[in-house]
């Protein structure tokens, strides 16, 4: 901007220039003076033009700086916005699982439960000796027959405490998993007794690894569906009717679709026979062909169902005499909710077979009866099943009511006297109440009545009230 004095000088100069233009050739002193003033004015005008040009350059520079400053401000604002959203957009680093830890590329988890049971038992036809597994959990073949009723027995037990470890590793697009599990119930224990230390051995339950669809190692038999076992304070529950075995196997699992999976397995064979005249079980270890098992699992909106089949080749070989026979079995299991609120749940298992005694009821019946006089091996047929109704009274309170049975049929050619002490039937009913005050803690009480009958018709029974306290982690 030009100041006021400069503007006045410029206006006066413009007037003089106009006057001088009309008198360009005057020679008088006055005219000469006027020309001098015009020349001075021209110099002043040039200076004004230079000043105007400089002012324009300065204004352009200021405008450029202002534009650059605005650009830097916008860039800084964008950077701030980027910084603010960066934590949400940044990729999450691979970390250890919430309930485990990592060692290199392997995720490791530890778990299990601490379990204490208190049993109050009355065997109505005899007594069960200390150290017998029937004192620790319901084992129908341990129920005495034709004895004298004794006083009530009270047992405290923490042997069923269980520990497990699992691993998982991703390798070139494949998944490698491992699992090992043990408890103190499986082994009888050699470090103590009930009088002092109550020490018991930690023993293997399961140990296997999985690579994609293959499983190698010791696991529940494929013939069994663990998911359908009813809830019980007992180590097993309705023992006489449950398919129950853990053993070494090789299994392949193939999903037919999202809801259906078929499992194929070859498993450790072992013929558990009994000689005619004596119900004592014999582990022959003469088997040369594995047990073949297939199971189809199908899930649906309200539950799941599975169908399993087993084929076996039984073998007894005592050197001079021996025999083989074919065995088979079929088991159908399931669980389903009975109402939309999922308050009622039904679980069941039904199993039939010939020569599968060791797979059902913890070998309540032998696979087959061997006749030493003829060297013949005769299969034993069994039919077993249970039905259990679970009621969820509240989110923390629930009950299960279970009925269970197994019946055994022997070859009709055998004289009844030679089978008199062989197990013929076992059944039980139970009802329980579980309360979970906090996550991971279960408190339970269960009543069970069980009966065992042998071929001669003699029988024995037990009544048991069991309490449980269990912390799972």
Strand content: over 45%
* Backbone structural class: alpha+beta
Low-confidence stretches: 14-26, 79-95
Q: Helical element count?
A: 2
Please estimate the helix content: 10-25%
CATH architecture of the largest domain: Beta Barrel
CATH secondary-structure class of the largest domain: Mainly Beta
What does this structure look like?
- The chain is α+β, with helices and mostly antiparallel strands.
- The protein folds into 2 domains: 4-89; 110-472, Porin, CATH 2.40.160.
- Helix content is 17%, strand content 45%.
- The protein has 2 helices and 22 strands.
- The protein has helices at 4-22, 29-89, and strands at residues 100-103, 106-123, 153-157, 162-171, 174-183, 203-211, 214-220, 246-255, 260-267, 272-275, 282-283, 291-300, 303-317, 322-337, 344-354, 368-371, 376-379, 381-392, 397-409, 423-435, 441-454, 459-472.
- The strands form 2 sheets. The protein has a 16-stranded antiparallel beta barrel. It has a 4-stranded mixed sheet with strand order 11-10-16-17, with no helix packed on it.
- Helix 1 packs across helix 2.
- The longest helix is centred in the N-terminal third of the chain and has 61 residues, at 29-89.
- The radius of gyration is 46 Å and the shape is elongated.
- The two termini are 85 Å apart.
């Amino acid at each position: 901007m030009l100041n006021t004095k400069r503007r006045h000088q410029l206006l006066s100069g413009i007037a003089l220039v106009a006057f001088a233009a009309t008198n360009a050739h005057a020679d008088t002193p006055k005219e000469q003076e006027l020309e001098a003033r015009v020349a001075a004015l021209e110099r002043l005008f040039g200076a004004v033009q230079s000043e105007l040009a400089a002012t324009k350059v300065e204004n352009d520079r200021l405008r450029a700086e202002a534009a650059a400053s605005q650009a830097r401000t916008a860039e800084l604002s964008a950077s701030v916005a980027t910084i603010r959203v960066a934590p949400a957009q940044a990729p999450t680093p691979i970390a250890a699982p919430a309930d485990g830890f990592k060692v290199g590329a392997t995720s490791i988890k530890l778990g299990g439960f601490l379990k204490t049971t208190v049993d109050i038992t009355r065997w109505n036809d005899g007594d069960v000796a200390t150290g017998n597994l029937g004192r620790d959990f319901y084992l129908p073949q341990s129920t005495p027959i034709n004895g004298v009723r004794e006083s009530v027995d009270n047992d405290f037990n923490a042997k069923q405490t269980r520990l497990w470890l699992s691993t998982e590793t991703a390798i070139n697009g494949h998944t490698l998993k491992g699992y090992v599990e043990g408890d103190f119930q499986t082994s009888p224990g050699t470090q103590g007794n009930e009088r002092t230390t109550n020490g018991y051995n930690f023993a293997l339950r399961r140990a296997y690894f999985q690579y994609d669809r293959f499983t190698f190692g010791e696991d529940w038999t494929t013939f069994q569906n663990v998911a359908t076992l009813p809830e019980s304070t007992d180590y097993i529950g309705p023992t006489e009717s449950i398919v129950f075995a853990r053993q070494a196997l090789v299994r392949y699992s193939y999903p037919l679709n999202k809801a259906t999976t078929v499992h194929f397995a070859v498993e450790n064979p072992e013929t558990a026979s009994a000689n005619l005249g004596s119900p004592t079980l014999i582990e022959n270890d003469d088997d040369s062909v594995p047990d073949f098992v297939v199971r189809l699992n199908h899930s649906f909106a309200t539950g799941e169902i599975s169908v399993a089949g087993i084929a076996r080749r039984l073998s007894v070989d005592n050197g001079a005499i021996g025999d083989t026979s074919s065995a088979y079995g079929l088991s159908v299991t399931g669980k389903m909710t009975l109402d939309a609120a999922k308050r009622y749940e039904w679980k069941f298992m039904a199993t039939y077979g010939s020569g599968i005694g060791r797979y059902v009821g913890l070998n309540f019946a032998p696979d087959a009866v061997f006749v030493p006089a003829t060297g013949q091996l005769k299969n034993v047929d069994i039919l077993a099943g249970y039905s259990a109704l679970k009621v969820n009274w509240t989110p923390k309170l629930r009950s299960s009511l279970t009925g269970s049975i197994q019946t055994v049929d022997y070859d009709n050619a055998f004289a009844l006297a030679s089978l008199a002490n062989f197990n013929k039937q076992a059944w039980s009913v139970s009802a329980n109440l579980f309360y979970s005050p906090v996550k991971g803690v279960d408190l339970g009480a269960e009543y069970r009545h069980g009966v065992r009958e042998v071929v001669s018709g003699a029988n024995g029974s037990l009544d048991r009230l069991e309490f449980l306290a269990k912390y799972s982690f």
